[in-house]
Amino acid sequence: xxxxxxxxxxxxxxxxxxxxxxxxxxSPQGRFxxxxxxxxGHGVLRVxxxxxxxLMAFDxxxxxxxxxxLIGSFSVTRFARPLPRQAWDDVPRTGQVRLRLVNETHxxxxxxxxxxxxxxxxxxxxxxxxxxxxxxxxxxxxxxxWERIRRSRRxxxxxxxxxxxxxxxxxxxxxxxxxxxxxxxxxxxxxxKPASWQAVWDDLVALMPLGVASGRIxxxxxxxxxxxxxxxxxxxxxxxxxxxxxYKRAGQPCPxxxxxxxxxxLAGRSLFWCGRCQRxx
Length: 281
Ligand SMILES: [Zn+2]
Known about the structure:
Layout: H1 4-18, E1 24-26, H2 33-39, E2 44-50, E3 53-58, E4 62-67, E5 73-78, E6 99-102, E7 106-111, E8 115-120, H3 121-130, H4 143-149, H5 156-159, H6 171-180, H7 194-214, H8 221-234, E9 261-266, E10 269-274
Antiparallel strand pairs: 1-6, 2-3, 3-4, 4-8, 5-7, 6-7, 9-10
Helix pairs in contact: 1-7, 7-8
Residues 254, 256-257, 259, 274, 276-277 line the site of zinc ion.
């Protein structure tokens, strides 16, 4: 499942492709024909992500709300040369395209989303209100997340995946951040120290922008250092390894202590951790 960094990168790409333009909006597959008709012929104001939700604001106070779910994809392609309006309906397509946006410079095709809906400004506010703070939003306030966590008896590893508590964190970031901070994933929210929560939030705030910039989740300390240096020097992060310390490394040696990485289902998702480094205290 795409995590928040993927949605923020997508929002950035869709915003730069379509904000300020009036794209043709269609549903080649037909399943979103009515929704597409509500948006077609209207200007795009901006595109933003909140957690794993995408919100595209149009100039008649309607929003396109997309959640990719497990298998959805939203591809953004730049045309080699400007495409005249009369050719916007003739761009070839492959597969089941739920929603298509075309303007003079770009094409975007949405396939297989969990959610694709046209909503009002009030409903968009409700979508945002249901989600916890998003570490990728510069002005995000982590306090509401902490208020929920410190009152909950659920495991911290489960709480970090609850989008109503903190938005955008998926399985990879939660496993890796808990390992980076040597926190036991089964610690109840009520047992988490304020400083530990602050460290989790700060680490997500530091790591997730590297994911937006690179398109991959970077959490291994040496890779984080290299990515930061590259970003500072060049303003971007190029291709590199897709490495993790514990995620999907069950049975392999922990990179810190050498004991075997463990795995277990927690709230329906596979958790990975080091039983020695992340021992209960
Ligand atoms: Zn270890």
